[in-house]
């Protein structure tokens, strides 16, 4: 069966939640040997490369924004795609199908059922060149190769947990400057860079938080950050290394020369009659009456 998160876990103490996530994060990490093969591949169109992976992730971020899906959906889709690419030798021509299937699995795992688009509509909107049958076959392969471990431990979960703990424990008014939406946006930018596929979720999450505290000069939160670092068993050297990579990534991402997700093409293809059909379809599905459970 597909892995799921234990309901009500958010009500548990910080230390208990943290231990549960740390115990699980290695289980959902992409294989390092597979990531190194991708990293060393020549960009000749014959093998999967880091550049192709990053292009696909940006497309998935565009879809996430287009459908107004949650950051959790995007973060999970990235994790699924990286784990699959690190395990299987995916040919570039199959990447679009693999990427969309990982995205669809994440959507179905995270979003409410009424907000999940039909597979055919998703293919049309994303302009992919394969059929629903192709997608169903690929989805089955992905699930089997990932051993049905779909509901992964992600950097987003740890980032939210760290942020919640630090802001709850701090008595300083400056904690309001530690904005979770801004932190999540920074994480999305990091997800679009292959290098961060090799970072443990806990380390990446804490590196983003540590950089923000440094940049905002929130010195009164330093002790809380250090406490979280110790509880997460993250070394100063490790944290410094990834914090510097995050800083470099965010600086490059803010540059006008950096390629960013663009969902303009998604809007273009569903203009006119197609848009009205899809809107009517989703409106009808969203307003179907729910079936009461049997007593």
Structure report:
The protein is an all-alpha fold and 295 residues long. It has two domains: 24-145, Cyclin-like (Cyclin A, domain 1, Orthogonal Bundle); 155-253, Cyclin A, domain 1. The chain has 14 helices and no strands. The chain has helices at 14-25, 32-40, 50-66, 71-87, 95-110, 119-126, 132-145, 155-169, 180-191, 201-215, 222-231, 236-253, 264-269, 273-286. The longest helix is centred in the C-terminal third of the chain and has 18 residues, at 236-253. The chain is globular and about 55 Å long. Belongs to the cyclin family. This is Cyclin-G1-like. Keywords: Cyclin. Residues 58-144 form the Cyclin-like domain.
Give a nutshell description of this structure:
The chain has helices at 14-25, 32-40, 50-66, 71-87, 95-110, 119-126, 132-145, 155-169, 180-191, 201-215, 222-231, 236-253, 264-269, 273-286. The chain is mainly α. It holds the Pfam family Cyclin_N.
Low-confidence stretches: 1-8, 267-276, 278-295
**Percentage of residues in helical conformation:** 55-70%
Strand content: under 5%
**What value does the average pLDDT take?**
85
Q: Major beta sheet, specifics? A: none
Q: What is the CATH C level class of the largest domain, in words?
A: Mainly Alpha
Radius of gyration: 20 Å
Kindly name the structural category: mainly alpha
Report the CATH superfamily of the largest domain: Cyclin-like
The secondary-structure element order is HHHHHHHHHHHHHH
Within the CATH hierarchy, at the fold level, what is the topology of the largest domain?
Cyclin A, domain 1
Total DSSP helices = 14
Describe the global form. globular
C-alpha end-to-end distance: 26 Å
For the record, the CATH architecture of the largest domain stands as Orthogonal Bundle
Total beta-strand segments: 0
| Overall tally of domains | 2
Domain Cyclin-like: 58-144
Family: Belongs to the cyclin family.
Keywords: Cyclin
Protein name: Cyclin-G1-like
């Amino acid at each position: 069966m597909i892995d799921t998160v234990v309901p009500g876990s958010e009500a548990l103490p910080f230390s208990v939640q943290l231990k549960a996530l740390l115990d699980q994060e290695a289980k959902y990490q992409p294989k390092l040997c597979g990531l190194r093969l991708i990293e060393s591949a020549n960009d000749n169109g014959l093998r999967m490369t880091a550049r192709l992976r990053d292009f696909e992730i940006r497309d998935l971020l565009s879809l996430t924004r287009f459908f107004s899906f949650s950051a959790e959906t995007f973060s999970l889709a990235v994790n699924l795609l990286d784990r699959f690419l690190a395990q299987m030798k995916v040919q570039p021509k199959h990447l679009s199908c693999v990427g969309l299937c990982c995205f669809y699995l994440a959507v179905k795992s995270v979003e409410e059922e009424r907000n999940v688009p039909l597979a055919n509509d998703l293919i049309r909107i994303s302009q992919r060149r394969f059929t629903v049958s192709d997608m169903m076959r690929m989805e089955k392969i992905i699930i089997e190769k990932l051993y049905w471990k779909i509901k992964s431990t992600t950097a987003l979960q740890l980032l939210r947990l760290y942020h919640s703990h630090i802001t709850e424990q701090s008595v300083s008014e400056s904690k309001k400057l530690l904005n979770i939406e801004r932190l999540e946006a920074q994480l999305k930018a990091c997800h679009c860079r292959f290098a961060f596929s090799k970072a443990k979720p806990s380390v990446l999450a804490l590196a983003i938080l540590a950089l923000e505290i440094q940049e905002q000069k929130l010195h009164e939160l330093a002790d809380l950050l250090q406490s979280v670092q110790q509880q997460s068993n993250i070394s100063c050297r490790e944290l410094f290394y990834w914090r510097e990579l995050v800083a470099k990534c965010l600086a490059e991402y803010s540059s006008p020369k950096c390629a960013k997700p663009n969902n303009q093409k998604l809007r273009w293809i569903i203009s006119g009659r197609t848009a009205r059909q899809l809107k009517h379809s989703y409106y009808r599905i969203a307003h179907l009456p729910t079936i009461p459970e049997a007593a």
